Structure formats: structure tokens, C-alpha cells
Amino acid sequence: MSNSSFLTEFLLLAFADKRELQLLHFSLFLGIYLAAVLGNILIISAIASDHRLHTPMYFFLLNLSILDFGSISTTVPKSMANSLWNTRAISYSGCAAQVFFLFFFIGAEYYLLTVMAYDRYVAICRPLHYGTLMGSRACVQMAGAAWASGFLYAALHTANTFSIPLCEGNVVDQFFCEVPQLLRLSCSDSYLREIGLLTFSAFLFLGCFVLIVLSYMQIFTAVLRIPSKQGRHKAFSTCLPHLAVVSLFVSTGLFAYLKPPSMSSPALELVVAVLYSVVPPTLNPLIYSMRNKELKDAVWKVIDWTFFSSKKLPIFFCK
């Protein structure tokens, strides 16, 4: 194969060669995927059905859950299907779709996490201006900007990656189509364009991360000035989950795409890929609901209405 135009499929990384281990991988990923889907659907349903949660913070959290649901659905189901059917193949178009949607959901999620940090900053540091700065229209515009940024980010990376000639085979050493692995199949210097674009994107992400850190420095300074212990606890309970999610997301993502070649090994790359593509969408619902009594109560109401009540789950909409 001398050019990527002749490729019709790629071969993804197989977790195991033995049938028993393939079925074990399928079962493990199925459990993780169902936990992620159930957790994010519960968050979405709880926020949509409880009018007390129709606030900017929960509106952004609803968008985050939708993005998490999308990102884990981009990679895990295909890997499960390959293990179940004892194959490694993914079509050329399927690979391009994976690259696009993974960049789309992860890019939009990161910009949304930046917006969520700004929301917490305004709520705690400028509470008197919160209603003005975080009105319904402003929230919709900020969420829409995050989704649009993710789309442009994904379109740029996907178009650039698949315009590069790929003539070093079709074996991708990852359980999904990951851009650094695809670039290893390049046989020309044109792959440097995508590396440059990835580096530029990393600096943008670091810029957003700096904004998030600066926001939280001011937030923690303001929280420590709150005289009551209960007030400080309430403020921290709304901020710490977000900070934990951002830290996990940024550290694993940047390491996956910017680690030095000397640190590369198949096992390490697999672990890092799981950490940034599978773990955050699975843990985010747990992290956000664990320390948030309002959200926890709303989730239990959804579970009660769904499994233990014959009444239909009410859905409220903001006016």
C-alpha cells in the first residue's frame, strides 16, 4: 500500500489472542460502559426532571454528561464488538469517524470545563453579579460556543490527519483510532503538520488550564474568608468535584499526546488511553454526585420513579 487512498480498513490492537481472555475483555468493558451510560443518563434525567436543578451549574453539568456519554460511546463499543467477534478490523471511514467524534467530544468537554470554572468563580467571588453574568442566554451561548469549538477542533484534526499519506501498513497499536498511532503509519514529512497542530492545541489546552487554576486560586481565597464552617463546606463541595475532574482529564490527556518517545511502550500507551478516554466518562457522574446532596437526592428520585413507582417521571423545563 503506497498511499492512504488505497487503505480500506485498519487493524486495531487486540487485548488478547485467547478466546477466554477476549470474552473477559468484552465483559469488563461491557460493565464499564454500562456503568458510564447509566451514570450519565441518571445525571441527565435528574437535572431535566428536577426544577430545583435548573441553574447554570447544573445546566453545564447536563451538557458535560451528554459529552461523556458521547465520548465513551465512540471508542468502547467497537472494542467490545471486536473482542466478541474475534476480529481487529475497523473500516477506513469508521476510523475517521472515531477520530472526529473523539476530538469533538473531548474538545468540547474541555472548553465546557473551563466555562464551568468561570461559573464557580462568578458564583463565589462575584455573587451579586451572578444573575447578570450567568443569565439563561449567556449560559446557552457559552455552552453553544463549547460545542462549536469542539466541532471545529475535530474537523481540523480529522481533515489534517487523513490527508497525510499512510503507507507503513494499517496496524494501529491502540484499541481505537488514536491520532499519534495513525501518524506512525505516515511515510512522508507531512505528518509534521499534524504534530504541529497537536502541539498548538496542547498550548491552547494549557491556556485554558491556567485560566481554570487562576479561577480556583481566587475561589479558594474567597472561600477561606467565609466565617462559617458550614458556608466554607458548601462552597468547597461545589468546587472540589470539578477540580478533580479537570485534573484527571488534563493530566492523562496531555501525557497521552505529549509524552516523550523514550517513555513510549505498548502497555503504558494502552493504560494512558484507557485513563483519558474511558475513566473520566465513567467516574464523572460519581464524582459530581458524591459530595452534592441536591444532585444525589434528585438521582435517587429518578431511580425511585423509574424502578419502584408506576407514576410517570415528570420533566420540567425552565421558563
Write the layout of secondary structure elements.
Layout: E1 9-11, H1 19-49, H2 56-84, E2 89-91, H3 92-125, H4 130-133, H5 136-161, H6 179-183, H7 191-224, H8 229-258, H9 266-277, H10 279-290, H11 293-307
Antiparallel strand pairs: 1-2
Helix pairs in contact: 1-2, 1-10, 1-11, 2-3, 2-10, 3-5, 3-7, 3-8, 7-8, 8-9, 8-10
Quick overview:
This protein is an all-alpha fold and 319 residues long.
Describe it.
The chain contains 11 helices and 2 strands; from the N terminus they run βααβααααααααα. By secondary structure, it is mainly α. Strands 1-2 form a two-stranded antiparallel ribbon. The longest helix is centred in the middle third of the chain and has 34 residues, at 92-125.
Largest sheet: 2 strands, antiparallel
The tally of strands reads: 2
| Uncertain stretches of 5 or more adjacent residues | none
SS-derived structural category: mainly alpha
Report how far apart the termini are: 58 Å
Residue fraction in strands: under 5%
The helix content, as a percent range, equals over 70%
Mean pLDDT, as a whole number?
A: 85
Oligomer, anyone?
Answer: single chain
Number of helices: 11
Radius of gyration: 21 Å
Outline type: globular
- Main sheet strand line-up: 1-2
Q: What is the string of SSEs from the N terminus onward?
A: EHHEHHHHHHHHH
